[in-house]
Amino acid sequence: MESRRWSEVWGLHKASVAKRIAIMGSTGSIGTSTLEVVRALGDTYQVVGLAGKQRWRQLAEQCAAFRPQAVAVADQANAQSLAGLLNGATELLVGPTGLVELAAREDSDFVVAAIVGSAGLESTIAAVRAGKQVGLANKEALVVAGSIIVPLARQTGARLLPIDSEHSAIFQSLAAGRAEEVRRIYLTASGGPFRTWSADQMANATLADALRHPTWNMGQKITIDSATMMNKALEIIEACWLFDLAPDSIEVLVHPESIIHSMVEFHDGSIIAQLGAPDMKTPIQYALTYPDRVPGIARRLDFTTVRRLNFEPPDLDRFPALRMGYEVARLGGTAGAVFNGANEEAVEAFSQGRIPFGRIVELIRQVLDRHTIEQNCDLDRLLAADAWARQEVQRCLHG
Ligand code: NDP
Ligand code: MG
User: Fold this and answer.
1) What is the whole-number distance in angstroms between the Cα of residue 184 and the centre of ligand 2?
2) Which of 158, 181, 322, 341 could anchor a disulfide with 389, C-beta 3.0 to 4.6 Å?
3) Spatial separation of the C-alpha atoms in residues 384 and 225, rounded to whole Å
4) Residues whose CB is under 5 A from ligand 2 (ion)?
């Protein structure tokens, strides 16, 4: 392949135009931040679709405020309650098929994929299949089905714009050189709430302990993933898919202040980093306005308050999820679906108080060890692997 800049590889040299945005997972942490960013950006950015699951009252309020063409609600049970609160201007779509329909509708050009977990997979694929620009927060979709999503995006011309802060940083830093000039990626990690805890202390950490993230304010599932460092493991796999990287070219670096969001080292020894306050509104806005940079509402970094930036290697013994992340990235095939499915199920069990914190990663390891990996799978096969992993976790819990 002739050498091209990253932005060209992704076909992103385009003048800014009005954008009609559908937000999948609009009631969540990324979803609500996206709405704040869109509101502040003004009239060129219009919300045409919203989607959520449980929080139907919030969905109704969002519909009243943003007047989208359509709203999708995943749960049939919440659809009637929501219908009663909508005025005639917004069409109501229901269930998983409603989500898929919303993501592919012709009235949007940009889809923000911000549903949590593999529940966001099918709507993300639908957006990619429809050739949308996709602001990708839903990393689990790539972990499960990067082998389908990335080739499909190349086929349809859909553009995957990372919202995950590290991947946004890598994306921005890669623009300083060419793909073949990259030596390695430094994927930074805050280290989570248990960075300094011993394995014994962590084993019985409570939900409240796990939810006390030192730098980021996020939804519950990703906050627990940050505590196990599964989040970083998922991000290794996400980076491999997004930027066509070998797992070994990615180095995780613990950086407790979360100011450097990730870095790219080039062959000449230059390291390009993206810095900013830990505020998801920065990468969300960058994905929405790309390739432009415009004033926004994200928190700004004040260097006079930054005393120092610290770095340390990750401790793979206390955080074995990280080692598994590399392993799964190398294995490919159904490994990502099993890794992610087992994690989602184990995190749910921990959230419900059914297992201690230390058991989350043990369960993932057990399930992965029992799995026979298959390569070159279609979506049904990947979804079956996800379902199998969840059942295996339940079997371990009951057996
Ligand atoms: P939240 O838990 O805050 O929000 C999740 C959203 O997904 C809600 O809108 C929820 O709807 C919706 N949802 C959940 N299940 C379903 C379903 N089955 N069908 C349809 N919608 C569903 O999560 P976050 O915003 O924290 O995270 C979203 C994604 O972004 C995750 O993949 C996460 O890894 C990624 N991400 C998040 C970051 C953050 O700062 N929060 C940072 C980087 C990545 P409802 O609430 O109405 O039930
Ligand atoms: Mg991240």
Assistant:
1) 18
2) 341
3) 23
4) 164-166
The Å distance, Cα 29 to ligand 1 centre, comes to: 7
User: pLDDT in tens for each of the 399 residues of the chain?
Assistant: 445 555 555 555 444 567 999 999 999 999 999 999 999 999 999 999 999 999 999 999 999 999 999 999 999 999 999 999 998 889 999 999 999 999 999 999 999 999 999 999 999 999 999 999 999 999 999 999 999 999 999 999 999 999 999 999 999 999 999 999 999 999 999 999 999 999 999 999 999 999 999 998 999 999 999 999 999 999 999 999 999 999 999 999 999 999 999 999 999 999 999 999 999 999 999 999 999 999 999 999 999 999 999 999 999 999 999 999 999 999 999 999 999 999 999 999 999 999 999 999 999 999 999 999 999 999 999 999 999 999 999 999 997
Domain 6-163 class?
alpha beta
Closest protein CA for atom 31 of ligand 1: 116
Per the CB < 8 A criterion, the answer to whether 186 and 262 are in contact is yes
The set of protein residues with a Cβ atom below 6 angstroms from ligand 1 is: 25-31, 52-55, 74, 99, 114-116, 119, 137-140, 164, 216, 218-222, 280
Examine domains 6-163 and 168-279+307-398 and report if their fold is the same: no
Contact present, 23 and 51 (Cβ < 8 Å)? yes
Number of the ligand 1 atom closest to the C-alpha atom of 73: 20
Rounded to whole angstroms, the Cα distance separating 153 from 282 reads: 24
Helix extents (H) in 183-319: 199-203, 207-210, 220-228, 230-243, 281-289
Give CA torsion, residues 77, 78, 84, 88, to 10 deg: -110
The best mutation among 26, 27, 30 to test binding of ligand 1, ranked by most ligand atoms within 8 Å of the C-beta, falls on: 30
The residues spanned by each domain of the chain are: 6-163, 168-279+307-398
Helix, coil or strand: residue 207: helix
Q: Which fold has domain 168-279+307-398?
A: Rna Polymerase Sigma Factor; Chain: A (1.10.1740)
